[in-house]
Amino acid sequence: MAKLDFDYKVDSDTDAQASGGGGILPHMYARVQVESATPTPTRDNRGTQVGLTFEVVEPSEFAGRKFWAYWTVAHADEYQHGQYKYGKPRFDKLVRATGNDADEFARDPDTDHLLFKTFVVEIGIEIGSPNPTGGFYKDKNNVQNFFFEGAGAHVPVPELGVIGDGTQGKKRNEAPAAAPANDNRPAPAPVRQAAVAVAATSSKPWGKPKS
To answer: Which of 33, 139, 171, 211 is the most exposed, fewest CB within 10 Å of its CB?
Structure first.
């Protein structure tokens, strides 16, 4: 049990459809569930963020794959704080997507209420930003849209699967190549390249089998 230690209120319009383990997932529609949801203080100790582990349930070829998110759900500066402005509306949608009543969750804001309840999302790709120490931070997946089911849902649930070529029109960061043996030259700096290889053998990272 992990209750939020503040008065939580769902205040986003969750009717509006706004915008893992095993490597990066392609841009896709998928049925997922929350495997864990852990509240922790924000870095500035002025708010609360929830660390979330999402697990893909469908499509079957991606079942068991995971990705992670950290959403700020409370902050002293509220919507003046960028991470709260990003995370709070998404968390509100998650509350609804997992079948929780907003008022009931506000009375008992226990993150256990979010666990192991499946719902449909659009999984996007977020390209890693430059790392001040060199190279790039790792690319990662994120939840771009929720698709609600049941009474009051205004947008049809899409067919599950990879969207287009899975790249979302984005160029992935390429890991630096290893230096040859007995070669003291440094490995080349990271470069950006298209996520889909032209060769017959796919180099898509999401094509790797689960370990």
So the answer is: 211
- The torsion angles phi and psi of 17, rounded to 5 degrees, stand at -90, 90
Residue 51: predicted pLDDT: 98
What is the Cα–Cα distance from 26 to 32, expressed in whole angstroms? Answer: 14
pLDDT for residue 210 = 54
3-state secondary structure of 77: coil
Indicate the helix (H) or strand (E) that contains 87.
Answer: helix 82-97
Q: What are phi and psi of 108, to 5 degrees?
A: -140, 75
Residues of the chain under the 70 pLDDT cut: 1-22, 174-211
Residue with tokens 């067919």: 159
Give CA 187 to chain center in angstroms. Answer: 31
Q: Decide if 205 contacts 65 (C-beta within 8 A).
A: no
Please say whether the dihedral angle defined by the alpha carbons of residues 156, 159, 160 and 163, taken in this order, is positive or negative: negative
Q: Count of CB atoms within 10 A of residue 195's CB?
A: 25
CA 143 to centroid of chain Cα atoms: 4
162 CA to centre of own chain: 16
Question: Radius of gyration over alpha carbons of the chain, in Å?
Answer: 19
pTM of the predicted structure, to 2 decimals: 0.74
